[in-house]
Automatic annotation (TrEMBL):
It is found in: Golgi apparatus membrane. Belongs to the glycosyltransferase 2 family. Plant cellulose synthase-like C subfamily. Its main location: Golgi. It comes from Musa acuminata subsp. malaccensis (Wild banana). The chain crosses the membrane at residues 65-86, 107-128, 170-188, 483-512, 518-536, 643-658. The lineage of its organism: Eukaryota, Viridiplantae, Streptophyta, Embryophyta, Tracheophyta. Keywords: Cell wall biogenesis/degradation, Glycosyltransferase, Golgi apparatus, Membrane, Transferase, Transmembrane, Transmembrane helix. Probable beta-1,4-glucan synthase rather involved in the synthesis of the xyloglucan backbone than cellulose. Seems to work simultaneously with xyloglucan 6-xylosyltransferase. Xyloglucan is a noncellulosic polysaccharides of plant cell wall and consists of a glucan backbone substituted by xylose, galactose and fucose. GO terms for molecular function: glycosyltransferase activity. This is Glycosyltransferase 2-like domain-containing protein. It is a multi-pass membrane protein.
Length: 688
C-alpha cells in the first residue's frame, strides 16, 4: 500500500466556507480527478491557491534548473582548465626526475597499465555478449557452471572461458596470499599507531612533561655553548637564520656561533661572509667557515667544524638548519635540562611552520609533521627516552657526540645515525613539545618529493649498516627489539611497502581478478580512522581529511621507491639534494627586520673586517644585482610513475563498474584523480 497523502489542511487553510472536501491519494501515480461540490466560492479560493502554488512550483523548477546549469558550467570550466594544464605540461615535456632513476619501477607500472587496458577491453566484450558472470570465490572451477563445448560461441568466447579458469587456478591464489600478508602488516601498523595515540592521550591527561631540576635558572651557571648553522647555497634564508641565532639571549662570552657554509656559488659565499662580518662588528662571537673539499654533505660539514681546536672548550652544541629561526630564549629553555642529569645526551625542540597555510601541499605536510612531533616524538621521549634526532633545533652534549663516534658520512640521515649510536651507548633523550623553533616546509611538490626520497632511503641504508652493532650492543633485549622491529622495520620499511602494494597494486589487480577479495574495511573504514587519528594533533585540518588520505596513498610510490633504493643500496640511496627554501618570515620577524634595518650601521663600518678583495667583489656583486636580469624560467614538471598509476587506477575503476562494486569504484576513482593531479604537478607551488 502506498503512503496516504492527506492534503485537507493545505487545501482549506485560507478558506472556511462551504462544505469541506477531503482529497486522499491512495496511489503514488498522479491522476486527474473531477470533484463536484455545492459551494463554488470555496472552490474559487482553492483555484487561486492552485494558481499560486503552480507559480511557486514553476519558480522552484527554474531555480533548480539554474543551479544545475551552473554546476554543469563550473564542471565544464574546471575540466577545460585541467585539459589546458595537461596540454601545457605535455608540450613542455619537462620530466620530474633524472633519467635512469626509478626506470625499473616505471617499466613495471607501464606493463601493468597495458595489461589492464587489454583486460578491460576483453571484459567489456564479454559483458556486452552476456558472458559476464557474478563474482565467484576461489573455488571457481567447482562452483561456476562452465558452458559445454556446444554452447561456446566462437574463439573469443572460448578464450574468455580459458582466462576465467587460468586466473582462478594460477593468479587468484598468489594474489590472495599477498593480500592477506599486507592486511596483517596493515593491522599491525594500525595497532602501533593506536598505541602511540593512546600514549599521547595518557601524557596529556597526566600532564607529563620534562621538568627542570632546581628552583630557578639563576642557580645554574651559564655553560659554554657552541651554535652551528650548516648551509649550502641558501641565498633565500641565510640572513634571517643568522640574524635569529645572533639574537639568542645568552652571555656573549659563553657562546660561539659557527656559520658552516658549503656553498659552491661564490656570490652566495660573499653575501654570507658579509652577513657574518656585520654581526661580528656588532659584538657577536661569530665565525665563518667554508670547506675547500666538500665531502659527506651535512655530516662532513659538521664533522669538519667539530674538529676545530677551540671546540674542546665548549660543553654543548646547538644545531640549526639554514631556514630555522630560534627564539631568543631557546638556550634558557633547553640547556637547564642537562643540569643534574649526566646521562642526558640530547634535548630536541619542536618545529613550528611559518608557511603551513601557503597551499594544499603545505597543509598536508603540516598534518604529518604535527603527528610526528606531538605523538611519535613526545611518546617515545617520555616512555623510552629515545627518538630519532630531527637534525636541527636540538642541543647535544658534546661528550655524548664524542662517545658515540661523532658525525659519520656513511648515510644521508646523519641525524638518525648519531641518535641510534648514542642510544646504543646508553645516552638518554628529552623532547620538549612546548619549545618551538620557526621554520618552513617545502612549497613545491618537486622539493617535497626529493626530501621524502632522502628521508625514506636513508633509514634503510642506515639499517643495513647498524644492524650488526645493534645486535652486539649491551642494551636490553626489549630496547634492541624496539630498534629493530618498531623503529626500523615497522615504521621505515613495512609502512611504505604495504601502502604501495595494497592500495596501488593489489586493489586495482583484484578488479580484474575478482576471485581474490580485498575487504571493504581495509579500503575505507580503517584508513579513515587512521587519518582521523593523524589529524587529531592539528584539529583545524579536519576539512582536509579526505585529501590527506588520498595524498598519503599517492606519496607511497615515492616512499616505496626510496625504501627499495636504500635497502639495496641503489644509485639514488646516497644522494643529497638541498631542499628549496623560499625565505618566508612571520609578521613579527618582518617588523624586527625593518627595525634592524633602520638601526643598521653604515656599510663601511659593517665591512670593516672584510678584506679589500672581498669588499670589491661584494660591491661588484651589488652592482650586478642592481641591473635588470632576465627572469629564470621555471616550470612545473610531470611525473611519469604517478601518471602511470593514475591511468591504472582509473582503468581499474572502470572495470569495477562491471562488478557493481560501489565503494571500490569511488575509492579507485578519487585515488586515480589524486595520482593524476600529483603526476601533473598540480599540488603545491605553481610556476608561471
Amino acid at each position: 500500500m502506498a503512503p496516504r497523502l492527506d492534503f485537507s489542511d493545505w487545501w482549506t487553510r485560507n478558506s472556511r466556507k462551504g462544505t469541506p472536501v477531503i482529497v486522499t491519494m491512495e496511489n503514488p501515480n498522479y491522476s486527474v480527478l473531477e470533484i463536484d461540490g455545492p459551494d463554488e466560492e470555496a472552490f474559487g479560493s482553492m483555484e487561486k491557491d492552485r494558481g499560486k502554488n503552480a507559480k511557486q512550483f514553476s519558480w522552484n523548477l527554474l531555480l533548480k534548473a539554474h543551479r544545475a546549469v551552473g554546476c554543469v558550467a563550473w564542471s565544464a570550466t574546471a575540466l577545460w582548465a585541467l585539459l589546458g594544464v595537461i596540454k601545457k605540461r605535455l608540450i613542455s615535456r619537462q620530466g620530474g626526475e633524472k633519467p635512469g632513476r626509478g626506470r625499473l619501477l616505471l617499466r613495471v607500472l607501464r606493463m601493468f597499465l597495458v595489461l589492464s587496458v587489454v583486460a578491460l577491453a576483453f571484459e567489456f566484450v564479454a559483458y556486452w555478449n552476456g558472458w559476464h558472470f557474478q563474482k565467484p570465490n576461489l573455488q571457481l572451477p567447482e562452483n561456476l557452471h562452465i558452458p559445454e563445448t556446444t554452447e561456446i560461441r566462437g574463439w573469443l568466447h572460448s578464450a574468455y572461458l580459458s582466462w576465467l579458469l587460468f586466473r582462478a587456478d594460477y593468479i587468484a591464489h598468489p594474489i590472495q596470499m599477498l593480500t592477506n600478508v599486507c592486511i596483517v602488516l596493515f593491522i599491525i601498523q594500525s595497532a602501533d599507531r593506536m598505541i602511540l595515540c593512546l600514549g599521547c592521550f595518557w601524557i596529556k591527561f597526566k600532564k607529563i612533561k620534562p621538568r627542570i631540576d632546581g628552583d630557578s635558572f639563576k642557580e645554574y651557571e651559564h655553560p659554554m655553548v657552541l651554535i652551528q648553522i650548516p648551509m649550502c647555497n641558501e641565498r633565500e634564508v641565510y640572513e634571517q637564520s643568522i640574524s635569529a641565532v645572533c639574537q639568542i639571549d645568552w652571555p656573549k662570552d659563553r657562546m660561539l656561533i659557527q656559520v658552516l657554509d658549503d656553498s659552491d656559488d661564490e656570490a652566495i659565499q660573499i653575501l654570507i661572509r658579509a652577513e657574518v662580518s656585520k654581526w661580528s662588528q656588532r659584538g657577536t662571537n661569530i665565525v665563518y667557515r667554508h670547506r675547500l673539499v666538500r665531502t659527506g654533505y651535512k655530516a662532513g660539514n659538521l664533522k669538519s667544524a667539530m674538529g676545530c681546536d677551540y671546540v674542546q672548550n665548549y660543553e654543548f652544541v646547538a644545531i640549526f638548519d639554514a631556514d630555522f629561526q630560534p627564539n631568543p630564549d631557546f638556550l634558557k629553555l633547553t640547556i637547564p635540562h642537562f643540569k643534574g642529569n649526566p646521562e642526558l645526551g640530547l634535548v630536541q625542540a619542536r618545529w613550528s611552520f611559518v608557511n603551513k597555510d601557503e597551499n594544499l601541499l603545505t597543509r598536508l605536510q603540516y598534518i604529518n609533521l604535527c603527528f610526528h612531533f606531538e605523538v611519535e616524538q613526545q611518546v617515545n621521549g617520555v616512555l623510552l627516552n629515545f627518538f630519532g634526532f630531527n637534525g636541527t633545533a636540538g642541543v647535544w652534549r658534546i661528550k655524548a657526540l664524542e662517545d658515540s663516534g661523532g658525525w659519520l658520512e656513511r648515510t644521508t640521515v646523519e641525524d638518525m645515525d648519531i641518535a641510534v649510536r648514542a642510544h646504543l651507548k646508553g645516552w638518554k633523550f628529552i623532547f620538549l613539545n612546548d619549545v618551538k623553533v620557526l621554520c618552513e616546509v617545502p612549497e613545491s611538490y618537486e622539493a617535497y618529493r626529493k626530501q621524502q626520497h632522502r628521508w625514506h632511503s636513508g633509514p634503510m641504508h642506515l639499517f643495513r649498516l647498524c644492524l650488526p652493532d645493534i645486535i652486539r650492543s649491551k642494551i636490553s633485549i626489549w630496547k634492541k627489539a624496539n630498534l629493530i622491529l618498531l623503529f626500523f622495520l615497522l615504521r621505515k620499511l613495512i609502512l611504505p611497502f604495504y601502502s604501495f602494494t595494497l592500495f596501488c597494486v593489489i586493489l586495482p589487480v583484484t578488479m580484474f581478478v575478482p576471485e581474490a577479495e580485498l575487504p571493504v574495511w581495509v579500503i575505507c573504514y580503517v584508513p579513515v580512522l587512521m587519518s582521523f587519528l593523524n589529524i587529531l594533533p592539528a584539529p583545524r585540518s579536519f576539512p582536509f581529511i579526505v585529501p590527506y588520505l588520498l595524498f598519503e596513498n599517492t606519496m607511497s610510490v615515492t616512499k616505496f621507491n626510496a625504501m627499495v633504493s636504500g635497502l639495496f643500496q641503489l644509485g639514488s640511496s646516497y644522494e643529497w639534494i638541498v631542499t628549496k627554501k623560499t625565505g618566508r618570515s612571520s609578521e613579527s620577524d618582518l617588523l624586527a627586520a625593518a627595525e634592524r634595518e633602520s638601526k643598521s650601521i653604515s656599510l663601511s663600518k659593517i665591512h670593516k673586517g672584510v678584506s679589500e678583495s672581498e669588499l670589491s667583489e661584494l660591491s661588484k656583486l651589488q652592482e650586478e644585482q642592481g641591473k635588470a636580469l632576465p627572469p629564470v624560467r621555471k616550470e612545473n614538471k610531470i611525473y611519469k610513475k604517478e601518471l602511470a598509476l593514475a591511468f591504472l587506477l582509473l582503468v581499474a575503476a572502470a572495470r569495477s563498474l562491471l562488478s557493481a562494486q560501489g565503494i571500490h569504484f569511488y575509492f579507485l576513482l578519487f585515488q586515480g584523480v589524486s595520482f593524476l593531479l600529483v603526476g601533473l604537478d598540480l599540488v603545491g607551488e605553481q610556476m608561471s
